[in-house]
Amino acid sequence: MTSRYTIGLDYGTNSVRTLLVDTANGREVATAVCDYSYGDQGVILTRDPNLARQHPSDYVTGAKVTIRKALASAKIKARGFKPDQVIGIGVDTTGSTPMPVDSNGQPLAFQRRFAKNLAAMAWLWKDHTSVAEAAEITELARRIRPQYLAKCGGTYSSEWFFSKILHCRRAHPEVFDAAYSWVECADWVPAMLTGTEAPDRLTVGVCAAGHKAMYNEEWGGYPDAEFLSQLDPGLGELRPRLRPKACAIDRSAGGLTDLWAKETGLPAGIPVAVGAFDAHLGGVGAGIAPETLVKIIGTSTCDMMVVPVSQGLADIPGLCGIVNGSILPGYFGLEAGQSAVGDIFNWFVNYLQPLGKAGSHEALSAAAAKLAPGESGLLALDWNNGNRTVLVDQRLTGLLLGQTLYTTPSEIYRALIEATAFGALTIINRFEEYGVKVNQIVNCGGIAEKNPLVMQIYADVTGRPMKVSRSAQTCALGAAIAGAVVAGKKAGGYGDYASAQKAMTGLKPRAYRPNPKNHEIYRELYALYRKLHDAFGTSSWNGNLHDVMKQLLVVRNRVRK
Amino acid sequence: MTSRYTIGLDYGTNSVRTLLVDTANGREVATAVCDYSYGDQGVILTRDPNLARQHPSDYVTGAKVTIRKALASAKIKARGFKPDQVIGIGVDTTGSTPMPVDSNGQPLAFQRRFAKNLAAMAWLWKDHTSVAEAAEITELARRIRPQYLAKCGGTYSSEWFFSKILHCRRAHPEVFDAAYSWVECADWVPAMLTGTEAPDRLTVGVCAAGHKAMYNEEWGGYPDAEFLSQLDPGLGELRPRLRPKACAIDRSAGGLTDLWAKETGLPAGIPVAVGAFDAHLGGVGAGIAPETLVKIIGTSTCDMMVVPVSQGLADIPGLCGIVNGSILPGYFGLEAGQSAVGDIFNWFVNYLQPLGKAGSHEALSAAAAKLAPGESGLLALDWNNGNRTVLVDQRLTGLLLGQTLYTTPSEIYRALIEATAFGALTIINRFEEYGVKVNQIVNCGGIAEKNPLVMQIYADVTGRPMKVSRSAQTCALGAAIAGAVVAGKKAGGYGDYASAQKAMTGLKPRAYRPNPKNHEIYRELYALYRKLHDAFGTSSWNGNLHDVMKQLLVVRNRVRK
Questions:
Q1: Do B361 and B274 fall into the same domain?
Q2: How far from A314 is each of A147, A151, A332, A432, A503, CA to CA, in Å?
Q3: Same domain, B163 and B60
Q4: Is residue A412 located within the same domain as residue A357?
Q5: Taking CB atoms and an 8 Å cutoff, what residues of chain B touch A420?
């Protein structure tokens, strides 16, 4: 039987990756990466630290270059490989990364008069220029459409779709007025490949629309025109030009155009799946399924679960989003996350530079691994970048307590890891408190790959095995799986996600198993963490922290004996 | 008129210093230092980290060597100087540093059979082997003699006289049984110089007895025999062999013996003042007087005030000690302190080693000096070594909050300095809350001498000028003043402390004046510090800390604009 392949196109913050995957077993046959050409590592910056843009021409180039390279590489690596064995394409991107387009669906940035206008570029997910508009949207929704907020954690973010558009309307009316509509990067790339950019042909994915643009079928899709008009009449006028329906990733946006086939060497007409965000397709690539929590752990985390729509689901306070079909079709996609994990360790190593050059991640991890839980007497909160889940509060900051005159950098490093583990446990508990059972945890991302100490501490703190996804490219793999599903069974793909995931995803052989003795100590420490968490993080808590430092000393003295 | 001189003999933890001072103006004519020969820098250590002893033979050698050297130096430096111009001697030592003595008042350590027995040595102030006994004494006193605790901050310390003796009784009965009595180093050195070591001739100072041995005339001197017997019958039997009365430093312990005159070259018979602790005579040397707070700032602080006995004084909760005559005769000596100040900065620089070699005190101070109050968004508690005043709780630890992903070492360094300033302000407030007005603050010690940033922050936080004592050797200077007072006016000394201090002490010309704008910001930050202080440090506080991080961000954002 001839092998069949699909392509996962993964649009990151700094580069595009093409991953070519064998549909039979998920083998990653070839990969190619292309760094964006614009800005600083692909991100256009100015003196305003909140601004972060991308040039959409990088999206075009990135696909051409990496697909060609990956096919060339496959011809070398896979015996007898031919491009016509590729049966489908999936796309994942960062987001919310919207851009203004003209009435043909072409980015305004491609027009000569806007070529250097940053407001006409793609507004990258981490662009924070729209803080005031986000507050305005939150405020209005709280007053007249509380249901909108209930699905996105209670606060509409400056990183999201309508905040950015409203800010453009206010600050750059010439761009706003020239734009026929706004399209997420995750929707525009599949449209580009399939020639469906025209606003009346465009297919939008429910992942971006549901998590970042308050799209929900319960209230008829995107926020209603009345709501948008109250924010700004211009926004209200935009409403009818937004698509009436958003789709899950089992739908195809169309077939690869002849032009793109020619440019890349791929067969024309192969289906391109509806796009979704990197983390969500990462969940798919890590084998997400009911009762399986997928954690993507990098600078921050994305914690994802799915619940069958048939089962029903109440709102879960503190989650960033609950969207029907945003991860897997037929399932609510649940997204939680920690605002900083690897970033906290990086801060400690790069900003504090403890022990000078002797304070690398490797050296601190090695020393921290020799410590027993509780031995340092330290306790930290993982809020250096605020708290996404469950407090949804960016105005929180880090905390470290328990320092003596002898506290060492490796003790602090371990305390910071433990703090992120306690934050992770808080998310797990929140899922379970609302009836979403967590029976398996699959980790992926840089830290899961590279730092066994972090994984072991997570196992010990949560009292649950930490499994690691087999693929080091789960996002691109998830996109390739989407390509296999839209290709369909007849073409050599799959009829549904469950069978595609079963064949194409897997775990690394080694799981990190909790040490029961360590877990017992961490149960005590977690109770103290929760006390600090609630005391500093909620307005409802009332009490006293007199026992916290003392209890840490009790644990420390017991452990040191 | 011929100049007259007195000698201050200053027994520190690592060395002895002799300071020769001109009584007319406090000019420090000559000084000589002798490092102790035993142990590690004068401190005998074992594998038990709590143990710290000294060999009393170092006390003998130290006096001989440094007095001779200082006199030799004076002959070179002061034109026409002759040793018979020296009219008196004062002594300050560490404490509580008790040692077991025989029926002649000679240290047991001088006996061949105890020559290597550490229990027969001097139990240095920082020896913590007696933690269990301290708890036992506190517990019993709380039950049956609460008045004993009211004068020493509510907790009897493992560093103090009876804890150490009781521990010796329990752990080293052979030494306890061989000891006729126990003598503080501060009392033994003057006795040695004047040949009054015999237990029935010994003069004990009220500074050591009152602050460390629960001596108070209100209840007839040392704790009563019944109380001591309940701790241990052996301790009860010791009670009658302790002196009935303790004296202030205006009393002479006797005249210098012929033998010591011969050994040192000093005139025989010159008076030696009753001994006192280094910090207390440091207060005298810094010009302590009613309404003047003297802060000795080094690794930790000692904060001292005096109140005329005639004025009366209620107990002040949280103070380490209130003792009639312990600093100046006729005044209550009030002692407060912070368990760590310089030690916290040293911890940060030496243990964390931020920025590697680029993270020296000098470099961090220089960078921290460029920051405005509130600019970092950080807030710390100065409890890395517990809290002496006002919480009297060693079981407290450090805390730092407000960290982001961009927090720098110099920001933390400044936050740690500010934390110690907030701790200092808490002590000032406590004095004033109980009617002890603070009208002037005089600083001395290593940090006051060397770190202008710390002094400026203290001025800005407290809103009060920070003055610095002229002498860099205030303890030895205070001892020399004691020598001038016991010598008396006729001999060329002084009839009382007020006139001696007026002539012999002074301030550096530069005072650190508070910046009103900075003080305003620090008032806001101090309110947050107090909230943390009370929430973590007291069992009576009840509330919520939800606003702390947010309020720090509000201040930070305002300052950064």
A1: no
A2: 12, 10, 11, 12, 32
A3: yes
A4: yes
A5: none
